[in-house]
Amino acid sequence: MRTVSLRRRVTLTAAAISGVALLAVALTVHSLFGVVVGRSENAVLTDRAQLARQLAQADTPPTVLITRVDNRSVRARLVLADGRVYGSLGPRHEDDARPRVIQLIGPGELNHARLTLQVDTPLLSRLQSRLGWVLIGATVAAIAVIAAGLWLGVRRALAPLDSMTGLAREIARGERGRRLLPDRADTELGRTASAFDEMLDALEGAEARARASEQHLRSFVADAAHELRTPVAGIRAIAEAVLHQPPGADPEEQQRMHLLLAREARRAGRLVEDLLDMARIDAGLHLHRTPTDLHDLAATHLDRMRMLHPGIDFRLTGPHPIAPVDPERIGQVLTNLLSNACRAIATADPAPDPGIVTVTLTAAPESAEITITDNGPGVPAADRDRIFDRLVRLDPARAHHPQGAGLGLAIARGIARAHGGDLTCPPPPTPGATFTLHLNTRVPDIRLDKLSSID
Length: 455
Hints:
Layout: H1 6-57, H2 62-69, E1 74-79, E2 85-86, E3 100-103, E4 114-119, H3 121-157, H4 159-172, H5 188-243, H6 251-283, E5 290-293, H7 294-308, E6 312-317, E7 322-325, H8 327-347, E8 355-363, E9 367-374, H9 408-418, E10 422-424, E11 433-440
Parallel strand pairs: 6-8
Antiparallel strand pairs: 1-2, 1-4, 3-4, 5-7, 8-9, 9-11, 10-11
Helix pairs in contact: 1-2, 1-3, 5-6, 6-9, 7-8, 8-9
């Protein structure tokens, strides 16, 4: 990018345009002067010829006539019939310009005399030359004045650009929040200043989001490391205990140690799988969409839950909407929500009797909803959005589970949003908790969807 001085460029451009315009005006004035002089010359010669004819008719003496006709601006030459010559116009001057020749008629010696009239050519040449020099001097002086005025005026006109430069440097030094705030946004500089402020808003917003994202990532890594430390520490402690058992140790004790080791290993494995799922969602989750009956999908997972939790009453109501979803991923969401509901009922104090989990499906022209409601302790209103953050576990009965890392709901919402829907926790209509899975039933334009990021 060439960085020629804008002040110099504007000054030179304006001065050049002004110079061309003034030169054109000077040439026009000079040409018009020539035209006016030519017309005036004809008028003067006509007047002098008319005067000479009148004097000849009045039998004026030749000397008087030539004195009246021949003066500073008009030269005359009078040749009488007998050959006498009067006047200041010599034969060589007649060749310099086109003279006017008239034949005089009168009662006396001017009868049949020949009068030659001619405007003083040297005088006109001097006038035109003087006018030309005056125009040249005036043009040069005007260009100089215009250039000087522009050089000083453009500096003031470009002062807002200096303000933008100063503000940019202040922001580069760390002074955030400063803005130009133009008083008028409908001018060239006003539009530029507004765009500059919008750019600063976007940059500072991106910087703030980057800081928040970095802080969130650090917190997530720290929490993940903390969560992994517990099962890894348990695995290490149990493994050391198994290694230090004497050869004749009780077989039942050995079996118990092995079971504990396997349980801690499964716990660490689940946490790693959850972390991998979150990484896949952040990178862009690949979905294998197929037209799926959401009612049948929910019924399948409810049958599995009935086998795992026979003491809970599972209910399913609603139509059979068809949605283009990844059944495995939506099943993962349903499993998480149903498991959370069963866990909340089982750990509630006092436990509801009986525990009820209701799955309700609703359909709209281009969307469907799966609502899961339980009669457990519920979710506090202040935590209904926070529970979808990563590594967040609530503290009463609904929240604390020794095998949960607080990633399940974050993964479930990520999967829902990857489908173009969402997962929310609205206020429940009855005591307990309610989670609603929103899905689109229209067929997407592509069969592979990606979710670039999760809030």
